[in-house]
Design a protein that fits this description.
- By secondary structure, this protein is α/β, with parallel strands linked by helices.
- It is about 25% helix and about 20% strand.
- The strands form seven sheets. Strands 1-10-8-6-2-3-4-5 form an eight-stranded parallel beta sheet, with helices on both faces. Strands 12-11-17-22-24-25 form a six-stranded mixed beta sheet, with helices on both faces. It has a three-stranded mixed beta sheet with strand order 19-18-23, covered by helices on one side.
- Strand 20 and strand 21 form a beta hairpin.
- Helix 4 packs parallel to helix 5 and helix 13 runs antiparallel to helix 14.
Length: about 425
Amino acid sequence: MKHPQYVSADRAASSVRDGDHIHLSSVASVPHILVEALVRRADAGDIRDLHFHHFHTEGPAPYSDPKYEGIFFEQGFFVGPNTRSSVNAGYADYLPVHLSESQALYRSGRIPLGVAMVQVSLPDADGKVSLGTSVDCSIAAIESARVVIGVVNPNVPFAYGDLVDLSQFDFLVEDDRPLFAKPYAEPTPDEAAIGRLCADLVPDGACIQMGIGSLPNAVASHLGGHRHLGIHTEMFADGVLELIEKGVIDGSNKRLDTGRVTASFLLGSQKVYDFIDRNEGVVMKDIKYVNNPFNIAQNPCAVAINSATEVDLTGQICADSIGTRIYSGTGGQLDFVRGATMSEGGVSITAFTSRTRKGATKIVPTLHEGAGVVTPRADAHWIVTEYGAVDLTGRSLQERARLLISIAHPDDREMLDRAAFGRFGPHYYAVRV
């Protein structure tokens, strides 16, 4: 059994070897104090060829900076704003993986993990710590790494679910900087319209998955009249808190974690972090459990609400890129699409504004060259824009085109109609939906 001692960040970082693959706890809970210690080693010419893995991270990301080429190489499982330009310039990289399977890259040894660097809460009376807002694939990293370093931070909430015993760490480091917080994102009028249409598709007793941002907040704002909703989602933010406080979300219809909110990582305001602290109504668990489509399907009326960067006329959904430019990642979209589809009474929804902020259509004749298909056309069901909601389930290609054009921006419909005619021929105009 290990008996870890508190050491300085520099001492802990000295355990990293050339060529190591390093896991970082992610999103709001990055162990920046350890990253800074590695930067000092890099600046001193003392280390090279390090590979970083994580979900997207908030805050500085020096491991993707071009000046550290040959020393640090970012290979994240999801791309955030702080690494996006470096990834698309080739100074960092993206590792495509369904989030449910990210942990298996560590547990199988496919990624030979040298060091796990995770931020944790203060220990409880039994010597266990919580990974707080970032369980994700950190449990697998702790199980698999040669060296495990925990940053003990009193600002990390003690969230129930998958806890870690102090004996699993080789080194402990103290830090007290606050977690990165993201304020509530106010929906636009178009997003509010989409939120209302999505809410209309959610039955009472549903178990919902949705992410963060203004569009999920818009959906949440229209669910106030629902009853006995549950949450089983890879992440959530401020939008659901009011529904929990009102009793709209009580989890009473869930078969897994009945009466509890289930998630794997979070990014929101401090109010969200305070909410999960020692709250027995919330469980933060391994991504292997949360994003497993079989587990998702155990809850009746599972509703998956996801987004897209563009959708073609046959229903192919791109959500990770804009042409060849990587924007985010596969994430858990298909995990939840498949889980919701298998659930009794489940619904899969893809919701987005009909146009980009620059005025380009998101419903396109064909995906842009290089765009990635995150959800295949056979898995595309409800598609929602501010102009309506259509169900592609059981629809042929030509029927899908007619339906999707009906919810495109009005100024784009003629162009899309011409493209559909050019693709499908004269019979296209005879199709009725």
